[in-house]
């Protein structure tokens, strides 16, 4: 396993749980932003506090509370951490807008946890920031992934709602 190197410290790459009363590996605190290169191989569980960014996309988080789309023409805000956002709707909604992305290649997963009939339909592309515009419909009990294209200033739907 390659060393993890930061400007603050170099934690060991192997350890033994012998002598640890809880039988677990020690916890390392890294004060600087670690940079990895090459292949990093890990087996087991790693817990992060905060966020992890790969190529500009935040890839891990604890999802925030669901955003209720309580009327037509409302704006879905971006998650404050991570890439997932739960939305709910008490009825079918139209004219929905997604806040513009902040980084080229940024990922966003929206999942509609409402009843199957309570779909959320985007507004026209120029209004909604979604390339497919009104063709982008997220049915209840389905989710969809988007990628932000800063050149086009649009969210592009990756696949169909699943």
Write the layout of secondary structure elements.
Blueprint: E1 53-54, E2 57-58, E3 67-68, E4 75-76, E5 84-88, E6 93-98, E7 107-112, E8 120-122, H1 125-128, E9 137-138, E10 142-149, E11 154-158
Parallel strand pairs: 3-5, 4-6, 5-7, 6-8
Antiparallel strand pairs: 1-2, 7-10, 8-9, 10-11
Structure description:
There is one protein chain. With 162 residues, the protein is mainly β. It folds into 2 domains: 1-47, no CATH class; 58-158, Jelly Rolls. The chain contains 1 helix and 11 strands. It has one helix at residues 125-128; strands at residues 53-54, 57-58, 67-68, 75-76, 84-88, 93-98, 107-112, 120-122, 137-138, 142-149, 154-158. The strands form 3 sheets. The chain has a 5-stranded mixed beta sheet, with no helix packed on it. The chain has a 4-stranded mixed beta sheet with strand order 4-6-8-9. The longest helix has 4 residues, at 125-128.
Rounded to the nearest angstrom, the distance between the terminal CA atoms is 37 Å
The secondary-structure element order is EEEEEEEEHEEE
Structural class per helix/strand content?
A: mainly beta
Query: What Rg do the Cα atoms give?
Result: 20 Å
Low-confidence parts lasting 5 or more residues at pLDDT below 50? 1-17
- The top level CATH class name of the largest domain: Mainly Beta
Looking at the structure, the CATH topology of the largest domain is Jelly Rolls
H/I helix tally: 1
Count of DSSP strands: 11
| The CATH architecture of the largest domain | Sandwich
Percent of residues in beta strands? 25-35%
Average pLDDT number: 78
